Amino acid sequence: MRTTILALAFSSLVTAGPIDPPAGPVAPTGTPLGEIGPGTPINGPTTITAPGRYYLTDDLEIFGDAIDIASSDVTLDLRGFTIVGDADLDDARGIDVLAGATGVRIFGGTIREFDGDGINVASTAEALIENVVVRGCGYGFEFRGAARAVGCTARNCGFGFRVLGDATRSIVVTACSADGNGEGFSGSFGSFERCSATGNSINGFNVSSGSVTDCRAVNNNNTGFSLFDVRASKLYAKLNGLVGISANRAMVVESDIIESPTGIIASGFTTIERCHVTGTGQPGSVGIDANSSAKISECNVANAPTAIDAGNGAVVIGNTVSKFPGRVSSNTIVVGSGSIVGVVFDLSTGGTLTSGNPWANILY
Questions:
Q1: pLDDT tens-digit profile, the chain (364 residues)
Q2: What is the C-alpha separation between 281 and 107, in angstroms, rounded?
Q3: What residues have CB less than 8 Å from 121, skipping those under 6 apart?
Q4: Closest alpha carbon to 185 in 230, 251, 252
Q5: What is the dihedral of CA 281, 284, 290, 295, to 10 degrees?
Q6: Other CB atoms closer than 10 Å to residue 89's CB: what's the count?
Q7: Which residues pair with 236 in a beta bridge?
Q8: Rg of the chain on CA atoms, in Å
Q9: CA-to-CA dists, residue 285 to 108, 204, 326, 335, 363, angstroms
């Protein structure tokens, strides 16, 4: 039986408090119920319809949707407990922040085995999610409304974090991880900061119309970072199955790409600046594949048989190319039709640098 809670509102708004999650794994707080302050306990399927503080008293096993939040100014403390769903029940959700609910805070627990979303924030809702782990759900976290996730983890879900915003809503995902999902982080109009995607079966990040800063993508089957109309900096991509970074109409600066068959694919007026690419050294591998008016500048490429492939309309200036002795037989810049490539000085074959041209590309 589903419970609908009609608690009285506090006389003052509940504040969210610090956003930095505590260190270490999620665990029950162990605080006696009589000492955790005022609030309403939840011990079964619940719809929250009034402001206030709510908390779990134990692990829950739920058939259907677990907790719906229909009121604004709600704090839900999971207290380190786990909400377990039935993965065979189509589209059931762990926690659903319904349309119009604002000032919601959810923190400190685990949600697993729901066919739908672990946590969903509706398009006109607003919520802060802190230190929550979601495992084995269709979607770990799905945000359509103004949401901020801090210190959260999605593991073994179809999609880890799915952001479906627009230019009017702020959706920020900070210090979160997506491990062993289908897609790690995906969607549009979101900001991703200090996040990591590891071992996902499709892409680590698949993001459009947003920003990605200081994030890591390691050992994902397809692409580490797939970016469209995105500003990105300080990315780290290593050992991804196909491509480290694929960027279209994007700007990517100060990033490291290590040992993917293709380090960077840049197209559609993308700008790549001050990046370092280390190739696999295998035949056919490419450091940077630039085309469709992409600009590549101030980058270093190492250990790639084709260091930079400058296709139609690409601009390639001020880069350096090096090879690891004994590992690759060539380290070339391929100049394609319609490309603009600064003069190339090949020092690897005994040539000398005879110009101070800042647009020159240097092989060594």
A1: 555 544 433 333 333 444 455 555 555 554 554 445 679 999 999 999 999 999 999 999 999 999 999 999 999 999 999 999 998 888 999 999 999 999 999 999 999 999 999 999 999 999 999 999 999 999 999 999 999 999 999 999 999 999 999 888 889 999 999 999 999 999 999 999 999 999 999 999 999 999 999 999 999 999 999 999 999 999 999 999 999 999 999 999 999 999 999 999 999 999 999 999 999 888 889 999 999 899 999 999 998 889 999 998 999 999 999 866 655 556 788 888 889 998 888 887 666 666 678 889 988 8
A2: 46
A3: 97, 127, 129, 142, 143, 144, 145, 146, 147
A4: 230
A5: 20
A6: 15
A7: 216, 256
A8: 24
A9: 44, 20, 16, 16, 17
Q: Residue 66 is encoded by which pair of tokens?
A: 């677990």
Cα–Cα distances in Å, from 184 out to 20, 221, 264, 285, 360? 22, 11, 19, 25, 38
348 token code pair: 């690897």
DSSP 327: T
Please, which residues have CB within 8 angstroms of residue 347's CB and are 6 or more apart in sequence? 353, 362, 363, 364
Question: What 3-state DSSP class applies to 302?
Answer: strand
Cα separation, 235 vs 121, whole angstroms: 27
Neighbouring C-beta atoms of residue 165, cutoff 10 Å: 22
Phi-psi region of 234 (alpha: psi -120 to 50; beta: other; left: phi over 0): left
